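Teaching soon. Got one?

===
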Amino acid sequence: SDFEAVKRGVETIEKEVGPVDILVNNAGITRDGTIHKMTFEQWQEVIATNLGSCFNLSRAVIEGMRARKFGRIVNITSSSVLAPIPGLDLSSGARAGLTAFLSGVARKVAHSGVTINNLLPGFIATDRMWSVLDDGARAGGQEDSFLSVLYGTAERGRTNVLRRVRYQGYW
């Protein structure tokens, strides 16, 4: 998330390869926990990575895109922008900030042929995500796993279960 290093990197790429026409921002870290357990250092690290790195990269390429009257910036954020994930408060907030910030920038550069889009993918069934969801269910007073709370004795990893959860708005 070092602006000057990013700027130098983009300059090197443009010198050796050519102008950057498409940028995909997909930086993100999380420091799981609620505000009660979060340190100021964790806050700064997540904001610097999730917001700062995307700002730095976008800022480094956007003027060239505007000058060429063409550019595409795609930000991969998270569905947590719409419905924060319990226990991932800081990550959800940083991603929401990035989405809102670059949505505003998009309105200012669209007339120059530069488009900015945000992709908000849903959950990806990883052990970490199951753990976060299970912790959230337990924090809400449930003794069983997230899917068990929703569907009785749902089995993890069954695509038909995941599809039903997603279609009902939980996913």
Observations:
- Confidence is low (pLDDT under 50) at residues 145-171.
- The first helix runs from residue 3 to 16.
